[in-house]
Write a structure and sequence with these properties.
D-Maltodextrin-Binding Protein, domain 2, ABC transporter substrate-binding protein, SsuA/THI5, signal, about 15% strand, five-stranded mixed β-sheet, 2 domains, alpha/beta
Length: about 325
Amino acid sequence: MNKWIKTGGILLLVCILIIPLAACGKEEMQKVRIAEVTHSIFYAPQYVAIEKGFFEEEGLEIDLKTTPGGDKTMTALLSDGADVALVGSETSIYVTAQGSNDPVINFAQLTQTDGTFLVSREKIDNFNWDMLKGKSFLGQRKGGMPQMVGEFVLKKHGIDPQGDLELIQNVDYANIAPAFAAGTGEFVQLFEPTASIFEQEGKGHIVASFGKESGHVPYTTFMTKSSYLKENSETVEKFTRAIKKAQDWVQEQSAKETAKVIQPFFEDTDLETIEMVVDRYKSQGSFATDPILDEDEWNNLQDIMDEAGELPKRMDYKQLVNTEFAEKVTK
């Protein structure tokens, strides 16, 4: 009996010594908490970066949560509930205009066009924008990028959003699609995959793309507080490199391959629909090909905000945009 006790004790001691040594050989993963403004196929490269292990290759562990709405997303970031926010760049302008000792900095761009589509209740073979005049248009939340881009495009086509049509803006973002399905509005501004699903179900018909009409803007970017950027510069660089790897992968692969990779994030959407949406966004250049937010895009964003009467004041590009990491990983 004593012999077995002695042997067991030796084995236990060996295990105690080996386990810490094995643990020391493994590099500790750095956790990064991302708050995304919505969960959308529009953000395909982000999900590719997670699913293909590009973040993991950089030693990063991603904790992703959806915080619906720009206000909730920025609250999560500012209150240290998240390290990085994926949201429209206009939110960084709003926060800075309100006064902040710790400015929010845009460091990596994910999408470079608007992601919404104009959906008509009735099928239209030869659509032109004048067809909206005198009609009811269910738009997006006032002050958000979809609404501002929507009005910008209407004005571009000679339509006064307040005078030439009935603009409906009193419906919450989450209820816009159900409201249209229930009979509100003759036209509606919708994101994918809802727009395509409505088309498949005969509830509406896609007639135009706001993304094609509005040009390049920093529609959705990764941003963080200036303090986090300074204290975790190596982490931010690794994060940006993972995003660039994903952007390259999405550009090189077919829409079908991308759809297969991101399907686990959209279990309620069939593969064919995901593929169709990815192809639509990719073909119109919605996915940024690199994480660099350039100055022309920044100025276009502020022009759109100004046109909508939502720009508190013009913000200098270098004040709220840091391209150091994006440029480094793109070289």
